[in-house]
Structure formats: structure tokens, C-alpha cells
Amino acid sequence: MTLTTRIVEHVANDWDEAAAARATTTLEQVVFASHLLGGNRALANIGGGNTSAKGTATDHIGREVSAIWVKGSGSDLATMSPADFTPLRLDEVLPLFELDEMTDEAMVAHLAKCQIDPAAPRSSIETLLHAFIPAAHVHHTHPDAINVLACSRDGQDLIGECFGRRAAWIEYIRPGFTLAKQVGTAVRENPDLELVVLAKHGLVVWGESAREAYERTVDVCNQAAEFVDGHAGTTVRFGGPGGGHRLGEDAREEVLRAVLPALRGAVSSGRSKLLLTDLSPTVREFVDSRSAPSLTEVGAACPDHLVHTKRLPLWVPYDPGADDLQALSARLASAAERYRAAYQDYFERHASADDVMADPDPRVVLIQNVGLVAVAPTLKAARISRDLYHRAIEVMAGASAVSQFVSLSAAESFAVEYWPLELYKLSLAPPAGELQGKVALVTGAAGGIGRAVLASLVQAGAMVVAFDLDGPGAAEAVESYGDAAISVVGDVTSEQAVTDAFAKAVAAFGGVDIVVSNAGIASSAPITETTLSEWERNQGVLATGYFLVAREAFRVLRQQGGGGSVIFVASKNSLVAGPNASAYSAAKAAELHLARCLAAEGGGDGIRANVVNPDAVLQGSKIWGSSWRAERADAYGIAPEKLEEHYRNRTVLGVNVLPEDVAAAVMHFASPARSGKSTGNILNVDGGVAAAFPR
Ligand SMILES: NC(=O)c1ccc[n+]([C@@H]2O[C@H](COP(=O)([O-])OP(=O)(O)OC[C@H]3O[C@@H](n4cnc5c(N)ncnc54)[C@H](O)[C@@H]3O)[C@@H](O)[C@H]2O)c1
Ligand SMILES: [Zn+2]
Questions:
Q1: Active site residues
Q2: Interval between CA 687 and ligand 1 midpoint (Å)
Q3: Range of the domain at 546
Q4: pLDDT tens across 361-409, in order?
Q5: What are 491-536's pLDDT values in tens digits?
Q6: Candidate of 443, 467, 469 to mutate for ligand 1, largest count of ligand atoms within 8 Å of Cβ
Q7: Neighbouring C-alpha atoms within 13 Å toward the C-beta of 351
Q8: Phi/psi at 10 (5° precision)
Q9: What is the whole-number distance in angstroms between the Cα of residue 203 and the centre of ligand 2?
Q10: Quick check: 449 and 614 in contact, CB under 8 A?
Q11: In this structure, is residue 136 part of a structural domain?
Q12: Which of 521, 585, 628, 650 to mutate to test the pocket of ligand 1 (most atoms within 8 A of CB)?
């Protein structure tokens, strides 16, 4: 059997004895093994699984105490550090084994009192399971190969067939005291036991060393994979391709480009979402397959996935041979609506009085014959949903090849999804920024004002697309923002470049909500010396460019159907007539009036259009680094270095205007919370220039 026909991939043993030898303490050893487990997502999914070690620790007054270090809640095996482990006094934990039952609240309260370091994170939900197993190292994971059998209808028989008496099978029960006691009892009563399989959940192994426990995980996973392959015979994953027309990768991308804004609108019912697309071979195989429509109705492949993927993905049928893109967009909207209604129903059926319904939008959308779209208010959360769904695909592939894929019931799923101990992990995330889930496109982003606008939008939690003629400048402007920003090089006077910039925003984040038209140039000359080309250059960038950006913005915003904010960075000159700048000022006045027309036209769709008028922002501006400074100084009959003072003195407030001041005004119009009921407005940021007072 070749690698590509395998139902479940085998996993490598990555233990490196030389590297392991550098981990000298018990804690360092469990950290080392955790990184290996987390480093292979087929073994330990993101955020999932937990590890522990038992040994001797020194407490705060120098006493030696017998200790257990357990993974803290909310960390990830792949990246955790020693500080992410919680040390507990084992002697104070073990007596709990004698109890018959214990509530979650009592368990959490007791464990908090056993912490050797009160400042350590809260220990994992599965702490007692680790403590009750009498072995130095315990590893609990949700590996694909084991979960294939754990999520099979006749999983218990299959595990028995595969491992014989070396394995214990424990029927599904939500983690907590009772599960820990069941596992602890099984291990204590069967000295020959090597692994415990938790139905519909995962694997527990142990060993006297970190290496022994780690290698046990790898070995049993490979045995299970071998068993599944042998058992599946000639079965192909997911029953092979279904009917319908098969699309190439480019064609799939084209479909997504066309429908993503509509999808984004459809799944942003309560709050704005970011969309992360996935057209990987694994996803394509699944969404094209014969069994996907029914498999996607079964449920999660591990309780750990629930808060990140919900119980079910949103499955959207699409036959590229028969459906057009408009039909698909409409179907996405109606399917999302039905999904919310079903989620509400699920909530009402199972909720108790204290439960508060989570966002009812789907987290994973599967478009048949196209691909997967992960949905979340942050890219990080969308990535987790996407990655966990890959695990689900692998588990469904195996389980449906050897048996029938089964999952938690709706009631069991609800009990995990709304479990306070699971919600606690989510509460550890940083608080949401004001613009979380929003996407902003900023033109002229490499300039002085543009950079300040980027900084304030990113600070508020928005994703930003920095568009500028100056490619290296735009790239540099976003450099420090990681994946919260992308840069796009292009000319706002080019229809194609503008369309492409919006397409890139859609591909990266799913759409756009805030468009800041800020690209600019400046020129100064008396009217008789203003050349036609100078006039046309000003009209091109400032009038036509703003028109093209606004037109594309309206197209995307209307497809999303969730309103939006268009902000023009015009100029005090749009209101005030001054000498020797008619080409610039007339083009800025055109911007201003265009914004007002857009406000009138966009209102019905909730699209707001507002203008920020800066004046004399010399700091950081390329405009002021050019001949404009000399020309303006000349026009006022003063030396160029006297300009700051000149501008300050002519303001009512006697201040100079900084890029950050302009960014604050842009932020006002960007934020629905601050200005959701304002459109067609002008906010001057000019220190107060009486001639520019709007009336
Ligand atoms: N700085 C001021 O005093 C002042 C005053 C009033 C209005 N404004 C307006 O503020 C905006 C930003 O100005 P700034 O001071 O940051 O200037 P800046 O020169 O520092 O930045 C402008 C940016 O726009 C980019 N750009 C120019 N033409 C473009 C095109 N065709 N396509 C794409 N990008 C293009 C430039 O590469 C530059 O990065 C401009 O619209 C300007 O007219 C500035
Ligand atoms: Zn688990």
C-alpha cells in the first residue's frame, strides 16, 4: 500500500535523545515531550491534550514536597513553557480518589488550594485524571489514529481487536472527577494496561519517563493506523469523489473571490467576522467527496473542537456545472440563516437558566466542490477552527472507512460547549478591540497620515490593507503588524489596480468594512502657470482616484450587506479658497462633494461617507518634504523653516496638527460605536481655521 492510499497517516517518532538530555529536571522533561506531541497536529490538536509529570518540588519556604506538574488551562502543548505548568501538592490531591463523586466547582476549588505556586495558571480540567494514574509521566492527547476508532460506532470492539487486553475502553463521559476516577481505577486494577481509550474523545498513556510516555503515544497511534488500513481493505476515503463538475484550484479561487463578501455578510449576524479560506488537497478531497454531505451532519470529532468549530459546520451544496455564482451567493445567505435558527433551537433545547447563547453563526463553512472557509472575529480564532476541522476530516475519513463515524449527542455536545470550565479557557483571550472583526483598506498608507491611520486602526483590532503607489513604503508601513496587515502596491488612478486591491482584501480577510481614501499629492502654482498636465494629475489622483476607490468600496460593501464606512482625507483647501493652489484645491473640493453624494446614495445600505479635513500636517508628510514646502512658503512670502510657526499662528487654537490628530478623526468615522449615526459630515482637523468653519 503506498502512502497516498493510506486512510490514516502514520506518525514519526521525533524523540531526540541528545536534545532530551538537555532537559534535566522533571518539569523540563515534560515540557520537552509536550513540544514533540504538539509539534505533530495529528497527535495533539491545537490547544488540546494535556501532559503531566510527578516528582519532587521545593515550596516557598524550602521544604521538599511531592508534586505533580500539570498543563495549565488555556496553553498549547506545542508552545508551552515551564511557567505554563501548574505545580500541585500531590499529597493533597491524591486523597480525592477515595471520594465517590465531586462537583466541578468543588474540584476546581480544591485544586486551587493544592497549588504550590498560587500565581501559576489554573491547572487543566483533566488534572485529576493525571494525578490518579500511578506513573511519573502521563500524556493525554486526541490523536487522529486513535480517535478514528474512538469515534467509530463499534469502537470498543475495534479497540479490543487492535490492542487486546493492553487497552481499556471507557464510555463517553464529560471530563471531571468521575472520568478521572474511572481511568485511575482501570489503570490501578490492571498492571498490564498500556493505554486507555476514551470513547469519542481521545487517548491516555503513561510511563516512568517522558520518553516512555511519548513513545507509547507514537506506537499506539501507528498500530491503530496500521489496523485501520488493514481493516479498510480497498475502501477509499469518503467513498471517493461525488457527482458534479470538478473544479481546478484557480476556478475554486475564482468562486471564492466572487462569493466571499456575500458569505461574510451572511455569517456576521451579531458581530463582524474574518474569513480564512482553505483549498488544501485534504479539504478539496473532502468537499468533493460522496460522503461529505452526510458526514457533516454527524457532529464534532472530539469534545475539544466544540467551542472552536461548533457541533456542526455549515455545509453548502454547490454544483459548478449547474449553479451560477449568484445562486451560490443567495444559497450561502439562506443556509447561514437556517444554521442560526437551528443553533438557536439547539440552545433552547439544552440550555439552563444561567446559559447565555454564544454567537449563533457557523465557525466552519464548507462549500461543496470548492473548499473550506473558517469564520471568526479574529484570524487566530479562524486558524484554530480551520486546523481543528482538519483533524475532524482525518477522524471522519478513518471512522467511516472501518465502521461508521459517531460523535457526541446534541446534549453531550451542549454540555461541553457551554461547560464553564471550557468557557474559562476562552475567557483568557485578550479583550476585544473596538474594531475587532473589521477590515480597513487605506490608500496612501505609506505616507505620514496613512501610517498614523494604520496604527490607530490596528490598535483598535482591525485588519488593515495598506494600499500605496510606493510598494516598499507600504510594505515597511505594515511590517510591525504581523498578520493584522497586508500591503498592496498600486495606483488609485488605475481601475484594475483598485479592483485588484479590493480583491486582495477579500482574499485575505473576506471583505472590507472601512475604506480610508487618503492617497494624495500636492502642487502649487498661480493659475496662469498651472500646466494642463499638473491640473490633470491632481484631478487624476484626488478626484478620479477617490471615485474609483469609492466605487469598488460600494460594490464590496453592498455584497456584504452590512453597511460600512467610507472616509475621505480631503483638506481644509476643499473649503477654503487660497492663492496659488487651484489645481489641488479644486480637486480636493471635488472629493468633498463626491463624499456628500456617496453619503446620500449609500445611506439606504447603511454605508456612511464622511470627510476629514487636515491642514498643515508637516510632520512625516512626503508632500511637505517636496517642493510644496518651498512653494507654500513662497506664496506666504516667508522662509520655508518658518512654515510650522506660520501655520500654528494662523489657527484659532494656536497649535500644530500632527498625523495622530488626523488619525483620531478617521477613527471617529471608522467606528460604528462612535459615529454610526453620522454621514455626510466634515471633521476639520486644522487647529481651527475660521475660514474653514463649515456652515
Ligand atoms: N499633510 C498635510 O498637510 C495635508 C493637509 C491637507 C490634506 N492632506 C491630505 O492628506 C492625505 C495624506 O497626505 P500626507 O500628508 O500623509 O502625504 P504623504 O505624501 O506623506 O502621503 C501620501 C501617500 O499617497 C501615496 N500616493 C500618491 N499618489 C498615489 C496614487 N496615485 N496611488 C496610490 N497612492 C498614491 C504616496 O505614495 C504617499 O505615500 C493626502 O490626501 C493629502 O492631500 C494633507
Ligand atoms: Zn481531552
A1: 584
A2: 19
A3: 439-620+657-686
A4: 999 999 999 999 999 999 999 999 999 999 999 999 999 999 999 999 9
A5: 999 999 999 999 999 999 999 999 999 999 988 899 999 999 999 9
A6: 469
A7: 12
A8: -80, 160
A9: 8
A10: yes
A11: yes
A12: 521
